[in-house]
Write a structure and sequence with these properties.
- The chain has 379 residues and is mainly α.
- 87% of the residues lie in helices and 0% in strands.
- The chain contains twelve helices and no strands.
- The longest helix has 59 residues, at 320-378.
- It is globular and about 80 Å long.
- Mean pLDDT is 77; it is low at 7-12, 154-164 and 365-379.
């Protein structure tokens, strides 16, 4: 009897230590687990970024090949549905890619080269006019235009004087372009083999889910590239036509600048539009500059409220703050190239995370629906 009462008072069985309360409450332990998971993810991302920077000579052609495959992927699939051989279809698609990218690059570069001096002179004139009215802001803009001119001339003189360095840079560029083109060919032709390899390497039954995540990420890149190219073309055409009507000098070069800047969302449109307005202000006066401002604002409103919801809303859905942070991170890692590549890569990551979240939500809902009928039966 004494032993039973002692056991009742102690609340524990003989030979087992009494139950002690946990050192931390459950909320603190959950927060610590989430912090540890966040630190682990941050460490993995940091190592991945470091490896990409160190291996940029190999990573850059791979990323460019992914963008090229996403841009002309629908053309390749159309050729395959026409019963063309996969290698032939991939080769024709790569040929079209060379023509499109090369032609667009030639038009943009030639337009900028032909009107670059005129644009810079107009910017310096606008800076002097602004300095007479607003003081230091105009001087800063004048210094920026002068530094841009000095940078261009310094690059040209360096390329002319240092022949070996120039040949090395050109050789690296050509090698990266050729490698990106070959990778585009293989990405298009062997996409089905990549899917089968993903299923073979996936642990257990994770192959279908990994395939859905990969397809969703690639669809996000595809939607961004096609939508941005189409929107950039419309923006460049509209602004070029508007500047030609206003008789602003260097309209074709400014239109080419708008086309290139469209691949850097928000920031590119702001910079190219500001340059167009300043050139109009320097050469045509305040009234024409205000009309140029109206043209730029009208095109941006058309893009933001009509083109983007119609073209990109189904495939790419990112908050503007996320886009700006991605551009800033890309610029800090790889400069202008990082700014161009950061947004499509962020779109791919966003698509993968969306698919992963949908998988877990559907999985939890399936478990809940499976458990709910079993409850009354077991009771």
């Amino acid at each position: 009897m004494r032993n039973d009462s002692d056991q009742d008072r102690s609340g524990a069985e003989p030979g087992r230590p009494p139950h002690s309360p946990p050192l931390l409450p459950i909320e603190a332990r959950r927060a610590a687990a989430w912090c540890a998971a966040g630190l682990l993810v941050a460490a993995v991302v940091a190592v991945g970024v470091w490896l990409c920077v160190e291996l940029s000579a190999a990573v850059t052609p791979v990323l460019l090949a992914l963008l090229g495959s996403a841009l002309l992927g629908p053309l390749y699939r159309r050729l395959v549905t026409m019963r063309l051989n996969r290698s032939l279809a991939a080769g024709l698609t790569c040929a079209v890619l060379v023509v499109v990218v090369g032609g667009a690059g030639y038009i943009v570069v030639s337009a900028l080269v032909e009107t670059g001096d005129q644009i810079i002179a107009s910017l310096k004139q606008a800076a002097s006019d602004l300095s007479q009215r607003f003081g230091t802001a105009g001087h800063s803009l004048s210094d920026l235009a002068t530094n841009a001119k000095t940078l261009v001339s310094k690059f040209g003189s360096t390329a002319a004087s240092g022949l070996l360095a120039g040949v090395s840079i050109v050789g690296q560029f050509i090698a990266a372009a050729v490698l990106a083109l070959l990778l585009t060919f293989f990405f298009l032709r062997d996409s089905d083999k990549a899917v089968r390899a993903l299923h073979e390497w996936a642990p257990r039954n994770a192959g279908p889910q990994l395939e859905r995540m990969a397809r969703r990420g690639f669809q996000s890149i595809e939607g961004f590239m096609r939508g941005t190219t189409f929107i950039a073309l419309i923006d460049a055409l509209c602004i070029t036509v508007g500047l030609l009507i206003l008789k602003v000098p260097g309209a074709f070069g400014l239109g080419a600048l708008v086309f290139v800047g469209a691949y850097i969302p928000y920031l590119g449109a702001f910079i190219s539009g500001a340059v167009a307005i300043l050139v109009a202000f320097a050469d045509r006066g305040v009234v024409i500059a205000l009309w140029a401002l109206g043209v730029v604002v009208a095109v941006q409103v058309l893009e933001g409220h009509v083109l983007q919801p119609m073209i990109q809303s189904r495939t790419v859905q990112m908050h503007p703050a996320v886009v700006m942070l991605a551009i800033t991170a890309g610029a800090s890692v790889a400069g202008i190239l990082g700014m161009l590549l950061s947004v499509p890569l962020t779109a791919a990551v966003s698509g993968v995370l969306h698919e992963l979240r949908k998988h877990y939500v559907v999985g939890s809902g399936t478990e809940a629906s499976d458990d709910s009928p079993a409850g009354p039966a077991s009771s």
